[in-house]
Specification:
Four copies of one chain form a homotetramer. By secondary structure, chain A is of the alpha+beta class. Chain A has eight helices and 18 strands. The first copy, chain A, is globular and about 70 Å long.
C-alpha cells in the first residue's frame, strides 16, 4: 500500500525488475505544464546503468512511453501515465534467490510480508530500477520549479573514505548547482572526483561495494511553505527520501552536528537584506517550525553500500532450513551513490513542487 | 493541514501554548484497548516541565481530561478526545515577540505562512507544549505493544560534548529498556548522567542551551511489517520524528556511518537461530526494503539546542523594519533533550502500533 | 476510522451523546477567516432540540467553547478545536438498550463492530447529537462562501405525505435562499408549513415518526471545480451527505427522474448569457463530468423517519438470546427533518468551501 | 486529483479515449490473490461496446496487458498495473468539439478546469471508456468475495418508461444473482427485456437516447463493517458510484420512498433466525449507522440518458463566442444502462472488498 504519495502532485509507481516493465501515474499536474521530453531523457540518462565501470553492466535505456495525460506537448491536468519497458533482464541469474536470502536486501522481509508470492527475480518491486519513475517525475517538477526561480542541485559529499567539501549553507549560485548535473561524480572540489572513482573501482575489484553521502540544496524556495507537526517540510522530504532504496539517514542543516552545539552557535541570527529577511547562518537548513524560512533548503542523505556483492556471505536457505554461504551472481553496482544523485534530486524536486502548489 | 497523521491509528492534535488548552483526537483504537490512566500520567510526568533546573520553570501539571472514546476504562473504538488545559501561562513574557522574530524559532516562517494571524504568544501552536498530546498517545500505544511483547526504550546518546555508549544493535533486554524510563537522564553508562547534567547546568548558567542525540530501540517487532517505497517503515518513522519540534536528523541502524563502510561490512549476515531467521549484525536497524526484518528497530535522532536563550541575539523587527538585538525573557529549557526522550518514544510506539494494525 | 474528512478543510469529530461532551477539530481554515460567534450560535440554534413539540424535549443549548485556533476573533490557520459539553443527559433512560437492539438504529451493527465496548447510552457516538459539530463548521464555511458570493439554502421538499414545490433549477435569489433560514419548517409554498407540522404532530401523538426530503441549492459556485472520477463533486457531496445519520438517498439535478427521460429532454442546452455560459435547463444539478459547470448546484436528500419510536417493536435481546418486544422510553424527535435542514446545509457549505480552496 | 481511491485496495486510473491507452494501478491486493484472466475477460466483455445495436459501434476489444503485480497467476501484493490499449479511435469525428460544447457532457466544465489543455477528443479522460479499468478491478474483487461467500448481482430496474420488478430486499439466491450476468439486459421479469430493448432501439432510431436505473444487491456481507460518519458504508459506496459517469442518484434500501413512511413502517424489526440476528424487512438496505448489519446490501442507481445524441442541440461555440446548433457525429450508445451494469457491480465489489480488508 505504499505505491502512492504526495498531497498535491500524487505519484503512483508500479513494476518489477524482471516483469514487463515499470512506470508511474502522476495526478495533479497543473494543466499546461510543459513536458520536455528531451530534458526528461537527459535526467533519466543520469540514472541509467551501464555507462561505465562504476555501475552495473545491465544495459537499460530507460526509454519511456507516455500513455496518457499529455496532449500537444503539455500536461492535460488529467493523470499522466508513463511506461518504462524492461529490456535487458537475465532472469536466470536470480533463480537461486527464491530461497536463499541476500543479506542487506529486502528478500527476507519481503518474503514474510508477501507470503512468498512476490516476484523475487532481480529484487522484483524492491529493485533499484523502480527509481527510474521517480526521475521522470523529478524532471517534470524541475521544469516547473525552474520557471519559478527554484533550483535543486546535489553533489556527492562522500564515497567510502573520500569526502568532498560541503555546500555553502547560505546558498550556492544557480549556475554552480546546475553544472553539477553534467558530471557522473558531481563534486564541489574537483580533485575528489578521481579519488572517489578509485574508491569505487577498488571495491569492484574486490567483489565488494561502497556507500556514500549525497548533499542537496534547493535555492529560491519562498518562505511560509509547509506545516507544523505532521506535515513539516522535514517530515515530507524525509518521507520520500527514506523511500529511496538504500537510504539510512537524513539530516537537515547542521544535522547531527547540531547536537554538539550550544544555542548561541546553533541559532541562525536574522537580518534584513535588501528588504528580505535572511539569516546569517543556516544551521536549520532553511526550515524552522517545519516551514520554509526563505533560506536555501539544505540536507544530506546517507546511502548504504550496494548489498549485492559477489563476495561469499553467510545467509539462510529457507528451502532446506539450513545456514549456507551465498555468492551473488549477476551484474551489480559497486557503488549506487552516483546513480542515486539524480534520484535524490528528483524526489526533492517533486516534494518542493508539491509544497508550492498549496 | 498537518494536524492529522496515521494510517490505522489517526491522531489529530490541536492547541496553543497560551490558549485555553491543547489536546488530541485518536481515531482507530481497537475497541477494548485498556486506557490505563495511571501509566499515562507517569508518561506525561516524564515530559512535564518544572521538575528540576534542567527544564523550564513553567509549572504545567499536564493533567488531562478524557472527553470521549473511553467507557468503563476501555477504548470504545470511536474517537477518543483528550483535553490538556493550560494553566501556568505568563502571556506578558511574550508580547514583544509579535514583531521581533526569535532566531531558530518558527516565528518568522509561521508569520509568513499564517499572514500574521497566528497566536504568537509562547510560540502558539509551534510550542513544544504540543508534544504533550503525543505522549498520551504513546502511552496508550505502549500498553497495546507490551501485550504483544513489544518494548520501546530510549536513552540519551549525547548531550553537548558528553556521549553515552550506544545500544547493542542485536538487542537489549526488555528489563534494561524499561528501567531507562525511571531516569530523568536515561543513559546506559551511568557515569555519563552527572556529566550530562553538568553540561546542561553550565549552559543554563551561561544563558545558553545545548542539544543532543536520543537513541531508540524497539524489541519484539515481528518481520514483514511496512511497505516498499512511499510507506517504508523508515519513511513513516522519520515522518513523525521530524514532526517533533527541534529534530534535525534521523538515522537508522549504522546510519551515516554506513556511508563509510563497504558492503562486506555493512551487510547483515543471516542465520537460523532456534528456527528464527536473525542477522548477526544490525546495520540496517531492523528494516530492509522498508519492511521490518525481525531484528530490533534501531535509530537515532538529533535534537537541536533550545532556540530560546536569554543571551542577546541579532534579529529583525518586522514593525520597524530594522535589525535589532533581542533578549528572550521568560522561562526556558536549557536543554530539551531529557524531555524529548518520552516524546520520541511516544511517536515511535504510535507508529509501530499503526504498522501492527495492518 | 471515519472521524476525519475533507481535502483542504479537514474536520475531525468526536464525542458521545452521554459522555462529557462532543466536538470537532478543523484543520486548514485560511488564516484570518472571521469566526463570527453570533452567526454560529444562530446556526447551532436552528439544529438544537427542545424548541417545540416537533423535536425531542431534551434541552441542549449546544453552547460551544473554542479551545484553540482562534485569536482576536479570527482563525489563526492552526487547528481550531471546539467543545460542546453535554448537559441534559438522562442516562437511566437507556440502560435496557445494552442488550435490546433498537430496530432501525446502529445498535446491533455498532455492537458487532465495536465488540460490545462502545458507549451504548443514547446511541453514543452514533447519536444525532454528533451533527452539532457539523453545523459549527458549516457556519464558518457559510461566512467564507458569502464573502465570495456563494449562498447555500435549503427547504423541506417533503414530510410524510406533504410535498412542497421544488426550487427553480435555474436558480433562486440569494434573498429567498437566505430567508428560508428563519423558519423552523422552511418551505417554498407557505401553505405547506402548517400541513407538515400537522403531519409531525400526528405522528408524535401516535408514538410514531415521519421522514422527509430536503432540497438544497447553492448559487454562485464558479465553473471548473471538482474532479473526474473519484473526486467528482457528486462523490464528495454524497460522501458527506450519507455520513449524516438517517440519510438514505441523494440525487442531483433531475435525479432519479432523469432515468425516465430521453437525451433530448435530459440534456441541458447551453447559451451565452451576458458573456457567461449558462444552460437553459439544469437537469445535471450544476455538475457535469464531476465538475461544476457554473449553474446552481442542486440536489435532494431522503431522510428516514426517526427510528426511536415509543410504539412497541419486535427485536432481539442479546443477553437472553430471545426475541422480545421493545418500547423505547425517553425523549425523541417525531421528525428529524426540520433539524436535519441546517445539518445538510452545513456539510454542503463545508464541501463547497473545500472545493473552492483547491 | 481524483485518480486514486480506496482505503485498503487503492485504485489509480489513467488514460484518454483517443490517447495511447487507458489503464489502472491496484495497490493493496492481498498477496496470493488469484488473477483469473478468463473471468476478467468475461467481465470486460460485458462492458465492451459494439456487440449489438443497443451500444456504440466503436469496436473495442478491451484486451488488457498486465504490466506488473502478477507472478505465476497470482497477485504479488505489490502494485498491479494493467494497460488497455486504445484501438478503434476515429479522432476526426471529434475535431469540431474543441470549441463547441456538447450539452450534458463534461466539455465545458472540463475546459474551464483544465484551462483548455485537456484532450478533448472523444471526451478524453471523461470518456465512458475509462470505466473499463473499473471492471478489471471489480472482476478481481468478485473472485475474492466469492471465496468468502459474498455475491454481488445487479439488474436493470428501469429503462426509459419500462420498469422491471425489484429485488426481494430480504435477499435473492446466489444462483439468481449470478445468472443475471449472462444477459445483455439483465432483468428479473423476463418479459421486460424485449420491452426495454424496444425502448432503446426506438431512441436510437430517433437519434436520441434513454436513461435508466440499476439495482444492486450484495448477499453474504458480514455485519460490523464500515464506520460512523465520514466513512459510512453508504458514504463509501456513494462516493464510487457517483464517480461513474452519468450517475445522478443513489438510494439505499427503501431510498427516497422512506421519506413518505412512518417509523413503524420504515424500521426493520429484528429477530433471531438460526442464531443469527436478521431483520424481517430491509428498508435500510443492509446498513444502519453507516455499518453493515448482516442483511443484504441493497441500493439503486439512476443513470442519465447518454448525452451524445445525433439530434441537433443548442450550445455555445467558445471560438466565435456565439450560440450555435450542434449535431454530434460519431458512434454513440443510445442507452448506456446495459453497459453500466457491470461497471456498477464492479465498483460495488471493489468497495465491499475494501471494507472486508479492514
Amino acid at each position: 500500500m505504499g505505491a502512492t504519495f504526495g498531497r498535491n502532485i500524487r505519484m503512483t509507481i508500479f513494476g518489477e525488475s524482471h516483469g514487463k516493465g515499470i512506470g508511474l501515474v502522476l495526478d495533479g499536474l497543473p494543466p499546461g505544464t510543459p513536458i520536455e521530453e528531451g530534458f526528461i531523457k537527459e535526467e533519466m540518462a543520469r540514472r541509467a546503468p551501464g555507462k561505465n565501470l562504476m555501475s552495473t553492466q545491465r544495459k537499460e535505456t530507460d526509454a519511456f512511453i507516455i500513455e496518457s495525460g499529455v496532449f500537444e506537448g503539455k500536461a492535460t491536468g488529467t493523470p499522466l501515465c508513463v511506461l518504462i519497458p524492461n529490456s535487458d533482464q537475465h532472469s536466470r541469474d536470480y533463480s537461486i534467490l527464491k530461497y536463499q536470502m541476500r543479506p542487506g536486501h529486502a528478500d527476507y522481509a519481503g518474503r514474510v510480508k508477501y507470503k512468498g508470492y512476490n516476484d523475487y527475480r532481480g529484487g522484483g518491486h524492491f529493485s533499484g530500477r523502480l527509481t527510474a519513475p521517480l526521475v521522470f517525475t523529478g524532471a517534470v517538477a524541475k521544469t516547473v520549479l525552474a520557471a519559478k526561480g527554484i533550483t535543486v542541485g546535489a553533489h556527492i559529499a562522500r564515497i567510502g573514505k573520500v569526502k568532498d567539501e560541503l555546500f555553502d549553507p547560505l546558498g550556492e549560485s544557480i549556475d554552480r548547482l546546475q553544472k553539477l548535473r553534467n558530471h557522473i561524480l558531481p563534486v564541489l572540489d574537483e580533485s575528489k572526483g578521481p579519488l572517489m572513482e578509485a574508491e569505487v573501482l577498488k571495491a569492484r575489484e574486490d567483489g565488494d561495494s561502497v556507500g556514500g553521502v549525497v548533499e542537496v540544496m534547493a535555492v529560491g524556495m519562498p518562505p511560509g511553505l509547509g506545516d507544523p507537526f505532521f506535515d513539516s517540510v522535514e517530515s515530507r522530504l524525509a518521507h520520500v527520501l527514506f523511500s529511496v532504496p538504500a537510504v539510512k539517514g537524513v539530516e537537515f542543516g547542521a544535522g547531527f552536528a547540531i547536537a554538539g552545539m550550544r544555542g548561541t552557535e546553533a541559532n541562525d541570527p536574522m537580518k534584513f537584506d535588501c528588504n528580505q529577511v535572511r539569516t546569517t547562518k543556516n544551521n536549520n537548513g532553511g526550515i524552522t517550525g517545519g516551514i520554509t524560512n526563505g533560506m536555501p533548503v539544505l540536507f544530506r542523505v546517507a546511502i548504504k553500500p550496494t548489498p549485492s556483492i559477489s563476495r561469499s556471505q553467510q545467509t539462510v536457505d529457507l528451502a532446506s532450513g539450513k545456514n549456507v554461504m551465498l555468492e551473488i551472481k549477476g551484474r551489480h553496482d559497486p557503488c549506487i551513490v552516483p546513480r542515486a544523485v539524480p534520484v535524490i534530486e528528483a524526489v526533492t524536486a517533486w516534494t518542493l513542487l508539491d509544497l508550492l502548489l498549496e
